[in-house]
């Protein structure tokens, strides 16, 4: 997996993600990594002089201002010696101009001017992978560089690497507003990614802020604290790749695993991540969890479309059976952890609110352009298509009497456990009426 960290938000989230991945890989004593180059990877590269034996992230850092990238290259104060890693010094691209929170500036101006240099940089890092299986682009939806340049690069990757999985982790801005034109930027970003990307993780600042306040007991969450929450959600999704699939494909392939199971249909590109449990670090050693409770909480969160389980307490019975994706190691020092990746309608409300605000700006005489209006209309069509398609599938499922269970797979649950004798994990199929069965 090759990560593209684009813009201030993308680079800060990327650093938090690699911190988490390194920590978890060390806890499992993993030798093969889909996320880092080991020092041995450089032994045959005569042109590379290694200053240290520290592993290096498979990542490219891109921003139109140098400040954040310079901070990313500094050692993290929270980074443990056992989990040490670093970025490749040559894998960065910066300018001094910035994008002014303007999607068009990032997409048309910065993207067009730097296209050749950026593609050469990406190709150079891609060629260092034995078998490149996917790109993960980390970006925001509100700013100019992350949204605009991130969209531009995703389109180029789709052209130059047509057989490679493309996933985007898009950080959605606060609904209360971060940038005056954030609704325009978000609509243009989603319209572009929905056309060429294979899957889109929608990570919400509002949800991360609530998790920090309500569950982690952080009264005034910083962006670093919120990035740690979002990074934990992403890391828990990638670290439980199906072992059987990994063997068949010749190595760990977390992005393709997600795309194959959740993004086969063009209407099912919007992905939501839910994770249980979440609690302050000081409380972990005093807590124990059961698989039944974890599955129940995740299901409740899915039905209620809640970012966390606090206050959701319904009496729902679930039948369980073993599934495919699992990891016997602990995650984040919890005794058991469950992560739910869903392509359900969970994110449609967020899109609808942003669309309404964009239309409201149109009606009040805010600048509007043909391409921008087309993007908003395109997202509106996507939302309606998802609703119509899911209604059609539900009717088909009722007629077919559940004959084709594999075609209905919508959600993957990943579980972690340290007891080697414990089996396994589960896959969930959620029907459109809110009920679910475990197959």
TrEMBL record:
Domain Tubulin/FtsZ GTPase: residue ranges: 46-243
SMART domains, from UniProt?
Tubulin
Q: Which GO terms describe its molecular function?
A: GTP binding; structural constituent of cytoskeleton
What SUPFAM superfamilies does the entry give?
Answer: Tubulin C-terminal domain-like (SSF55307), Tubulin nucleotide-binding domain-like (SSF52490)
Biological process (GO), any one:
microtubule-based process
Name the UniProt key words of this record, in alphabetical order.
Cell projection, Cilium biogenesis/degradation, GTP-binding, Microtubule, Nucleotide-binding, Nucleus
Offer a single GO CC term for the protein.
cilium
Places the protein is found: Cell projection, Cilium; Cytoplasm, Cytoskeleton, Microtubule organizing center, Centrosome, Centriole; Nucleus
Show the InterPro entries listed in the entry. Delta_tubulin, Tub_FtsZ_C, Tubulin, Tubulin/FtsZ_GTPase_sf, Tubulin_CS, Tubulin_FtsZ_GTPase
Q: Mainly localized where?
A: other
Entry function:
Acts as a positive regulator of hedgehog signaling and regulates ciliary function.
Q: Which protein family is it in? A: Belongs to the tubulin family.
Protein name from the UniProt record: Tubulin delta chain
């Amino acid at each position: 997996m090759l990560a593209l960290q684009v813009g201030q938000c993308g680079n800060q989230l990327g650093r938090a993600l690699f911190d988490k991945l390194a920590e978890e890989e060390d806890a499992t004593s993993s030798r093969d990594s889909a996320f880092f180059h080991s020092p041995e990877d450089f032994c045959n590269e005569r042109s590379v002089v290694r200053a240290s034996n520290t592993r290096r992230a498979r990542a490219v850092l891109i921003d139109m201002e140098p400040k954040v990238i310079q901070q990313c290259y500094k050692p993290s104060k929270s980074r443990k010696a056992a989990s040490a890693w670093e970025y490749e010094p040559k894998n960065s691209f910066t300018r001094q101009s910035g994008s002014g929170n303007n999607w068009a500036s990032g997409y048309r101006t910065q993207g067009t001017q730097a296209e050749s240099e950026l593609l050469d940089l990406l190709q150079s890092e891609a060629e260092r992978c034995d078998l490149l299986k996917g790109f993960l682009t980390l970006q925001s939806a509100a700013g100019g560089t992350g949204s605009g340049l991130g969209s531009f690069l995703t389109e180029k990757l789709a052209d130059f690497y047509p057989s490679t999985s493309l996933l985007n982790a898009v950080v959605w801005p606060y609904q209360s507003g971060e940038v005056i034109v954030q609704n325009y930027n978000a609509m243009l970003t989603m319209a572009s990614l929905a056309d060429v990307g294979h899957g889109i993780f929608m990570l919400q600042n509002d949800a991360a802020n609530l998790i920090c306040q309500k569950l982690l007991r952080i009264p005034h969450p910083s962006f670093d604290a919120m990035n740690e929450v979002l990074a934990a959600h992403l890391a828990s999704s990638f670290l439980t790749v199906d072992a059987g699939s990994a063997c068949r494909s010749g190595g760990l392939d977390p992005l393709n695993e997600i795309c194959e199971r959740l993004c086969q249909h063009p209407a099912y590109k919007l992905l939501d991540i839910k994770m249980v449990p979440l609690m302050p670090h000081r409380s972990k050693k005093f807590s124990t969890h059961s698989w039944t409770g974890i599955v129940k909480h995740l299901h409740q969160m899915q039905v209620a479309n809640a970012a966390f389980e606090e206050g959701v307490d319904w009496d729902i019975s679930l039948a369980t059976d073993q599934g495919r994706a699992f990891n016997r190691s602990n995650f984040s020092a919890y005794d058991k952890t469950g992560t739910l990746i869903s392509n359900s309608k969970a994110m449609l409300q967020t899109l609808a609110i942003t669309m309404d605000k964009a239309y409201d700006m149109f009606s009040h005489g805010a600048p509007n352009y043909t391409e921008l209006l087309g993007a908003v209309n395109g997202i509106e069509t996507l939302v309606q298509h998802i609703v119509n398609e899911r209604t059609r599938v539900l009717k088909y499922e009722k007629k077919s009497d559940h004959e084709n269970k594999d075609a209905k797979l919508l959600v993957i649950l990943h579980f972690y456990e340290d007891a080697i004798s414990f089996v396994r994990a589960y896959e969930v199929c959620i029907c459109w009426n809110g009920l679910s069965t475990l197959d």
